[in-house]
Amino acid sequence: MTDDLIGATRLVPCSVVILSTGSDGNQDAMTATAMFVAEDSPLLIISLSKENTCYELLERTGECALNVASADQVGLVKKVGSTHGRDVDKFKTFEIDVEKGTRIGSPLIKGAFANLECKVITSLPVTTYMLYLVEVVAFKKDDTRTPLAWHKDRYFSLDKEAR
Ligand SMILES: Cc1cc2nc3c(=O)[nH]c(=O)nc-3n(C[C@H](O)[C@H](O)[C@H](O)COP(=O)(O)O)c2cc1C
Question: Which domains, ranges and CATH numbers included, belong to the chain?
């Protein structure tokens, strides 16, 4: 790839989710971005590096929670986005508060703007990544919190409407 294309994809503002998958004793969480696909069938796409611990777990469970990160969670987003579950129990080390989902076994992370319970519909390998089309099967949201966005390696709190 020519040098002038490196960094191109980082120009696109991204959602920030904390993906959690697995269950007690074998669970993990990582920062990711999720892309809208459709609304009437509630579908999203996520992309996981095959080097990530969550990739191995998601391949086994076929389900995950996409916890839409709130502005209050920016510290947690940085921590779970820069450590690997194979090296550290992130839930214990970062004192992540969780609760049970209604339709999936993966833990929901408290303090998020929203918790989307998702099941994998299909996947597609692309270079060193696996793309997953996931369907939201249940969700809840907390309108008192503000979601985060990620752009050019910086985080932004989405509380100002542009007109
Ligand atoms: C803002 C942000 C977005 C990220 N998005 C993704 C992503 O979409 N896919 C991915 O594989 N890794 C992504 N990462 C990197 C993973 O969170 C990171 O590699 C993490 O350490 C993986 O943890 P695990 O090995 O426990 O699964 C992102 C990191 C940050 C900080």
Answer: 14-157 (2.30.110.10)
